[in-house]
Amino acid sequence: MNCPNCKREVGAEFRFCPSCGTPILKEAPVNHIPDRKIDMVNVAGGTFIMGRELPGRTVAVVDFSISKTPITQKQYETVVGINPSKLKGSNRPVECVNWCEALIFCNALSIHEGLHPCYSIGNNVVLSGFDASSPVWKRVECNFTSGGYRLPTEAEWEYAARGGISHSPAQYAGSDNINKVAWYGENSEITTHDVAMRAPNALGLYDMSGNVAEWCWDFMWDLPVTGNALNPRGPDIGTMRVKRGGSWLDDPFQCTVFFRSGSAPTGKSSSLGFRVARSIPDRIL
Questions:
Q1: Given the DSSP bridges, would you call strands 228-230 and 57-61 parallel, antiparallel or unpaired?
Q2: Which are the contacts of 263, defined by CB distance < 8 A and separation ≥ 6?
Q3: DSSP class of residue 129?
Q4: Starting at the edge strand that comes first in sequence, how are the strands of the sheet with 46-50 ordered?
């Protein structure tokens, strides 16, 4: 198959030309309309104590939106064209996706919906042509003023998991009873499960504890125990990217709203996926 614009040969797995970004139209089965709708929840900004330590770190975030569930295998495959997951199920969270591939998905979804992509490497917003091991990923930038899809920052993720302005004191996203809200090592039967099968938190967000851990934008770093921060987005350099929420193979502590861990951006695991966020442009500081 060749790109209708630049004529470059394009592999069957691509939905966009990796050179010029032109959509590659493919015939769909009769009466089949792909469903790539992402249900988003608007989150009113506010302040909260981030992390486990007391008195903790006071963090303020502005309004944003975040997907109701982790991205499912069906949603991922509809946008990207492949399903890399090891534990198959169309409504299960997509996994075995590295951090770079999560960004590729975000930009591709933005382009699908006519939104300006958040991520760029130089002048490139179609990132599927860059291998995850390439050093060019060190130059990736996020335009937080864009209305496109992106990974949540670590602060946004924890604020949303805690229920936003409700400031829930619960250890897990929605409850102190982990079995009510999470698939984890003791109840998962060693696998992922369809999203939204456990109870949501106060914002109506599902699976923020357990099922799969979730990539965030930030580089992993040691959070200050005290101090204030407005819309923190992590350090500019690092080697590990943050993942949050715990998974189907983790213990209860790893599924808490405050537990933090990191992984190399090239890392993949059947216990690691992601959900998406969007900035609300007139709320950005």
A1: parallel
A2: 99, 240, 241, 243, 269, 272
A3: T
A4: 46-50, 57-61, 228-230
Decide: 24 and 16 in contact? Cβ < 8 Å. yes
Residue 262, phi then psi, degrees to nearest 5: -140, 165
Question: How is residue 192 written in tokens?
Answer: 């992922």
Q: CB of 272 within 8 A of CB of 246? A: no
Interhelix angle 73-80/99-112, nearest 10 degrees = 70
| Residue 32 clears pLDDT 50, i.e. is over it | no
The model's pLDDT over 158-195, given as tens digits with 9 standing for 90+, comes to 999 999 998 789 999 999 999 999 999 999 999 999 99
To the question of pTM greater than 0.85 for the whole model, the response is: yes
Q: Give the pair of three-digit tokens for residue 264.
A: 């190399």
Which two structure tokens, joined as six digits, stand for 188?
């998962």
Residues 235, 274: Cα–Cα separation, whole Å = 20
Task: Name residue, tokens 């982990």.
Answer: 178
Q: Closest Cα to residue 220, out of 273, 263, 269?
A: 263
Can you tell me the mean pLDDT for 134-157?
Answer: 96
C-alpha separations of 181 from 114, 196, 200, 237, 277 in Å = 34, 9, 7, 34, 21
